[in-house]
Amino acid sequence: MTTVTQAQSRIRILPAFFALALGFGVIALTGHVQAAALHDAAHDVRHATGFPCH
């Protein structure tokens, strides 16, 4: 394996690590929020994006 291919394989893995870190961050942050607050936030996002509700 040459230096160029090692660098390319590291670049390919970087988005996966970023997605994994982002997922753990979202789960860790939402795990400390009350269910009603999460529901209200999701409801507001749904209204903001134009999806119907209820």
Textual characterization of the structure:
There is one protein chain. By secondary structure, this protein is mostly helical. The protein has a domain at 14-49. It has 2 helices and no strands. It has helices spanning 3-30, 35-49. It starts with a helix and ends in a 5-residue tail after the last helix. The mean pLDDT is 85. Pfam families: CbtB. InterPro entries: CbtB_put. This is Cobalt transporter subunit CbtB.
Q: What's the average pLDDT?
A: 85
Question: What percentage of residues falls in helices of 4 or more residues?
Answer: over 70%
Q: What overall form do the CA principal axes indicate?
A: elongated
Would you report the number of β strands? 0
Which residue ranges are poorly predicted, with pLDDT under 50 across at least 5 consecutive positions? none
Largest β sheet strand count, sense and barrel closure: none
Order of helices and strands: HH
Give the oligomer, counting copies of the same chain as homo and different chains as hetero: single chain
Distance linking N and C termini: 57 Å
Summed up, the helix count is: 2
Q: Indicate the structural class.
A: mainly alpha
Radius of gyration: 19 Å
Strand % is: under 5%
InterPro entries: CbtB_put (IPR012667)
Protein name: Cobalt transporter subunit CbtB
Organism: Sulfitobacter noctilucicola
